[in-house]
Specification:
By secondary structure, the protein is an alpha/beta fold. The chain has 16 helices and 15 strands. The N and C termini lie far apart (54 Å). The structure holds zinc ion (ZN). Residues 67, 69, 215, 251, 304-305 line the site of zinc ion.
């Protein structure tokens, strides 16, 4: 028998729990879900190259992390428990100044490994040296939308360099011609990018038909600074610059007011909730998910980078999101399990313009199997409840992306090399920074 990790072969996933009943899933050799249903194994047993016995595992669409900085895995645990501005200026930025392409490559490999192990098959990334991030994603087999973090600090000279870097990344990703890897424009935030820079990014994204990835209103200070500098709130400024579109993912959005929530809805923006990072850095307000949803914005979920989380486990994130919404807005009916699961899967896929996020025939096979015979899934009264409130990403046993098996029974081929390579890169990075 050929290696199931080898490449595009058809797979019959038998005996898995789909929407509350035991069913089978057939994935064709193009990586598309051919059929989902009860008793399919009879029809497809002869046809499939591989039979994957699910043993009653819970099958769900692969999770989508809509806001992260993948290579920051190398900074995991380097500095914690500080005030946001001190943390950035004293610890994170000085270390990042020493990052090399090799570091971004290994950091992104490590991030992909962690995502595969915890059931995430696609992510929306913003960082530097993204050509090397793309190489890592290509090798690891998951999906990514990659953006260069465009920061002009209101300087025209810097802006030109940032435009060039953005253009270069988009051109580079086109040449890869890999359907799993996409580019986006990444204006960092309204407080780090001039209105001219924001406008350029919006126009560039429209011309090139790529998405936009931005940070928005994470802290209260950002909002008051924006009003002092521009005489208007951040979302209003972004809208005037053309940045708010259906292809835009805005991260954090903690401090949006009612009118800004309406605006996000009207423009069809996706808003990425990053609850763990917000709580760890004490942003003092939770994203108003219920208001944004009611206004028509697409609420999705992200972990943010590993320096402020400190992991990429979307199962952990979805629980934190649900309990934070209930706690902060003082309403236990907010973000119930089914909705919480949807923001981590379908809404994330929609935010990135992917056809995935559902276990439906005709869609690309991004499938995650969560063990049923473990403590966090026993008893199994309600799968959505267990997945959101009881299980962590360690309950994931098998991860499939685009029809390719990336983890089988918790085994990821090549894991050891990734761990070694990333640990070495992180160690050398800190050494270089300390030598100065
Ligand atoms: Zn971020």
């Amino acid at each position: 028998m050929e290696d199931i990790f080898g490449g595009q072969q058809s797979i019959l996933i038998a005996d898995v729990l789909v929407d509350g009943r035991i069913a089978d899933i057939f994935v064709d050799d193009k990586g598309i879900i051919g059929a989902v249903g009860v008793g399919l194994r009879k029809d497809y047993k002869g046809e499939a190259d591989f039979l994957l016995d699910g043993n009653g595992a819970v099958a769900i669409p692969g999770l989508v992390n809509t806001h992260t900085h993948a290579a920051m895995t190398l900074l995991r645990g380097y500095a914690d428990d500080m005030i946001l501005q001190d943390w950035l200026s004293q610890k994170i930025w000085p270390l990042e100044a020493h990052l090399t392409k090799n570091d971004v490559y290994w950091g992104t490999k490590l991030a992909c490994l962690e995502m595969i192990r915890t059931g995430t098959v696609a992510f929306n990334d913003m960082y530097f040296m993204m050509e090397d991030a793309a190489r890592a994603v290509d090798e690891m087999g998951i999906r990514a939308t990659l953006s260069y973090g465009f920061i002009d600090l209101f300087s025209e000279e810097k802006r030109e360099a940032e435009c060039k870097a953005t253009e270069h990344l988009v051109r580079h990703i086109r040449t890869l011609d890999n359907p799993r890897i996409r580019a986006a424009a990444g204006p960092h935030a309204p407080y780090t990018v001039s209105p001219e820079g924001l406008k350029w990014c919006a126009e560039f994204a429209r011309d090139q038909q790529v998405g936009i990835h931005i940070h928005l209103s994470e802290t209260e200070k950002e909002v008051s600074d924006c009003i002092a500098r521009h005489g208007k709130r951040p979302a209003v400024l972004l809208d005037e610059c053309g940045v708010l579109t259906p292809g835009t993912v805005a991260a954090h959005c903690c401090w949006l007011d009612e009118a800004e929530c309406m605006l996000m809805g009207e423009r069809g923006v996706s808003v990425s909730h990053n609850p763990t990072s917000n709580m760890k850095l004490a942003t003092n307000r939770a994203m108003p998910c219920h208001r944004l949803s009611a206004a028509g914005a697409n609420v999705c979920l992200g972990t943010d980078g590993c320096a402020s989380n400190n992991n990429l486990d979307m199962f952990e994130e979805v629980k934190v999101a649900s309990v934070l919404q209930k706690f902060f807005w003082n309403n236990p009916t907010l973000l119930p399990a089914d909705e919480a699961l949807a923001i981590a899967t379908l809404h994330g896929a929609q935010a990135l313009g992917l056809e995935t996020g559902r276990l439906a025939a005709g869609t690309p096979a991004d499938i995650v199997l969560v063990s049923a015979d473990i403590a966090c899934n026993t008893p199994l009264h309600n799968a959505a409840s267990n997945l959101v409130y009881a299980c962590s990403g360690s309950a994931v046993e098998t991860t499939i992306c685009n029809g390719r098996v990336l983890m089988l029974d918790r085994n990821v081929p090549g894991e050891e090399q990734v761990l070694k390579g990333a640990a070495k890169a992180a160690q050398e990075l800190v050494k270089r920074a300390q030598a100065v």
